[in-house]
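W.,

You were right to be curious about this one. When I first looked at the sequence I had no strong expectations either way, so I just let the prediction run and decided to look at it fresh. Below is the sequence, 497 residues in total, followed by the output.
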Amino acid sequence: MKRLHLYVIKSFLGPFFMTFFIVVFVLLMQFLWRYVDDLVGKGLSLSILGEMFFYASFGVLPYAFPLAMLLASIMTFGSLGENYELVAMKSAGISLFRIMRPLIVIAAVIAFLAFYFSNNILPKTNLKFTTLMVSVKQQRPELVLQEGVFTNEIDGYNIKVGRKDKKTNVLYDLLIYDHTKNSLNESVTVADSGYLKITEDKKYMVLTLFNGVNYTEQRPKERREQAKRPFRRDKFEEQTIRVRVNNFDFNRKDEGIYKNMYRMLNINQLNLMSDTLYGQFYEQVRNYLFQIDINPTIARHVHNHTVPHDSLKQKPLPGADSTFVVENYFETLDKWVKAEIAMTALDKARSNMQNLNLYQGQITARKRHINKYDMEKHRKFTLSVAVFIFFFVGAPLGAIIRKGGLGMPVVVSILLFIAYYIVSMTGEKSAREDIWQMITGMWFSTFIFLPIGVWLSYMAGTDSAIMSAETYIKLLNKVGLSGIAKMIKKNKVGKKE
């Protein structure tokens, strides 16, 4: 039995590591396409880019573990079934669950490692990645002059290039507007050709122009001469413009700015942060509601609901809200008093409605922000449990379809993972918007796929023919769809011939 277990483990580890690195590579390519606009043209060094991809690879690992487990389990048991090795093991009296036993232990170990990684390592790498990405986004792009387009990347200048020689980098037909003195288009330079160079320290721009003219409108000192608008024209054969440029060098942000974000915290820190945020949230709700003109009884209820840990809060007496009948008192008043009371009540209701509409958006945004911290706590568990669930989905499914390699297993795995992702995103969105409870939304995908895994394991363990066409032909005949059943049977016979 030990040799059999070692053989199964050896058959599993190879596909697992191969698919794991393939999945990480594919997810990194998705990251590259997502942030390509923020990286291109910034003049970043290879060390900065390498560091960014290193941190980004850690960010995709929580999704790579479940997908790699699903792919590897389908490929392993599909290959064993395709080569009739599962049949030989079962004929020797070894059940499918005994064959899966060593891999169940490995799946549990990988799930635990995934949780440890998500809780202890990933928050630190997320902090470094976020800090680095914000620094890159705020980095000014390298100056790229495009043909026929004005560029204002140089402080105080607008430059337009008519044509650019890509081999020699010589610029032709230059038009330059000088705004360094906070003036309008009073200084314009036209040059036949020139070239642009940024110094190695990226602090100065040197623009050398040839065969051009500088047009300048001068401002007269005396008011009576302003209508004349003196004009000056200077021709030159060569002119050099040296401009100091800022923010072309890379400046790394302080990590302390982002250390309290939900993706940078472990479970203990998330619990402490959630308690703090909920305390601030209840205080904000209480302050908003106390600004609304309501009666003391309702205000007491609001206080009791928003201060759950107050030992001095008063409980309203039973029947205290019904000791005074407003309708009976209102009927005894004169008509003009009723009208005045109605107008006053209507004004207060409108004022309260305006305040509620104003506060509702702020309270909803604050609650949605708190929900992100609660979601992150659950996500650390759900992605780890997904590793274990996908094994019980992939292993029996591979034993049923009996196809190894990278063909059918890859297609089935991608479809299953897309379905899992869609269900998971649906639950997370419902939890974030407070449509569902947090535990229901975050564990919704687990509640769906866990029974599927149990059912597939049972069907594979009992050798049920769920992938056989005869099974579905009999089912269609039972429900009265004999025409479809005959069509399937006819196609099956045609393929055999």
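Here's what jumped out at me. The chain has a mean pLDDT of 78. And, maybe more interesting for your project: Residues 2-138+379-463 form one domain.

Coffee later to discuss?

I.
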